[in-house]
């Protein structure tokens, strides 16, 4: 039923990863069931099939950029919508079985992205250790706990779950790195506007139209809609055919964003609405939402609409 809080959650597994840590920050998930999925497509398909109410999947990382498989899955198949975002600091730790000392670490299990983000620390503190690629941060922690490796680069939740000692914390080379996760559900009424919201879209441009992408940007710009992110992904139809993913400031209930969406509908080959949801502020971000430019607030739109209605009725006062 639309509006019913989710109780069955699925997330990109395995256990002990940043995705599980991000899901645990959602109050409703603490009271509901939480099931790891083997992949992003599996997590989202479980929502489409009605086996779960919501899925938490990674959307982008401040170091590695967008998560292409998530964007592809949202653009294709039965529609799904983002109802919430979770921005989680990426704080890697080096963990090992109790009794292990840092000088005795000769092998380190790590997901390739994790070892890349900790390359400088590894070079300085463990220059002779062999880094072994594994499938996830959770798998790294599990491998260290099973004595397959001397240590693991993992999320703090992974160290705790596998009862590992933390030999060093905050070992990432970029201390302000964050990962943005999306909580995805089947279509329904979006959360009410908060005054600081994000609307996500997948936009297909008309490839036989000159300036098609510029037309998309103009529909937003002329209404003062701030676009915070744009990503392109191949559609798979033919070389040079792309779908553009946009994050815009505002809510579908806002008049100016609503008019922008109508404009996009007119000039684009297709537009897929991916949700309007509250923005989560994180360290380094502005504390306040950007206000609407002069003449483009909902009150300004309402005043202009009332004025036009009077003109059409013959009232020039």
- The fraction of residues assigned to DSSP E strands is 25-35%
Counting helices, strands and paired strands, the structural category is: alpha/beta
Low-confidence segments = none
Tally of helical segments: 11
Write down how many β-strands occur, each being a DSSP E stretch of 2 or more residues. 15
Oligomerization status of the protein chains = single chain
Description:
- The chain is of the alpha/beta class and 317 residues long.
- It is 30% helix and 29% strand.
- Strands 1, 2, 3, 4, 5 and 11 form a 6-stranded mixed sheet that branches. A 5-stranded mixed sheet has the order 8-7-9-6-10. A 4-stranded antiparallel sheet has the order 13-14-12-15, sandwiched between helices.
- The chain is elongated.
- It starts with 7 loop residues before the first strand and ends in a 5-residue tail after the last helix.
- The relative contact order is 0.14.
Brief rundown of the structure:
The chain is an alpha/beta fold and 317 residues long.
């Amino acid at each position: 039923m639309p509006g019913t809080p989710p109780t069955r959650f699925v997330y990109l597994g395995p256990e002990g990863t940043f995705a599980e840590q991000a899901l645990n920050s959602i109050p409703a998930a603490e009271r509901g069931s939480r099931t790891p999925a083997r992949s992003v497509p599996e997590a989202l398909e479980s929502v489409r099939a009605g086996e779960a109410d919501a899925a938490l999947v990674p959307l982008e990382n401040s170091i590695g950029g967008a998560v292409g498989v998530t964007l592809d899955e949202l653009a294709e198949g039965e529609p799904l919508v983002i109802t919430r975002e979770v921005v989680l600091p990426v704080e890697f730790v080096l963990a090992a079985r109790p009794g292990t000392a840092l000088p005795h670490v000769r092998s380190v299990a790590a997901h390739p992205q994790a070892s890349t983000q900790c390359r400088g620390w590894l070079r300085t503190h463990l220059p002779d250790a062999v880094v072994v690629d594994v499938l996830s941060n959770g798998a790294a922690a599990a491998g260290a706990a099973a004595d397959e490796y001397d240590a693991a680069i993992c999320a703090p939740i992974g160290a705790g779950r596998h009862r590992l000692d933390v030999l060093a914390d905050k070992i990432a080379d970029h201390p302000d790195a964050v990962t943005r996760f999306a909580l995805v559900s089947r279509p329904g009424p979006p959360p009410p506007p908060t005054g600081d919201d994000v609307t996500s879209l997948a936009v297909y441009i008309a490839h036989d139209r000159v300036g098609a992408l510029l037309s998309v940007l103009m529909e937003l710009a002329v209404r003062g809609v701030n676009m915070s992110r744009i990503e392109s992904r191949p559609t798979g139809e033919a070389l040079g055919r792309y779908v553009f993913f946009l994050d815009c400031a505002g809510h579908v209930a806002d008049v100016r964003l609503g008019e922008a969406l109508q404009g996009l509908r007119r000039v684009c080959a297709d537009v897929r609405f991916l949700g309007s949801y509250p923005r989560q502020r994180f360290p380094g971000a502005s504390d306040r939402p950007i206000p609407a430019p002069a003449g483009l607030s909902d009150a300004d739109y309402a005043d202009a609409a009332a004025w036009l209605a009077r003109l059409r009725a013959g009232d020039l006062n």
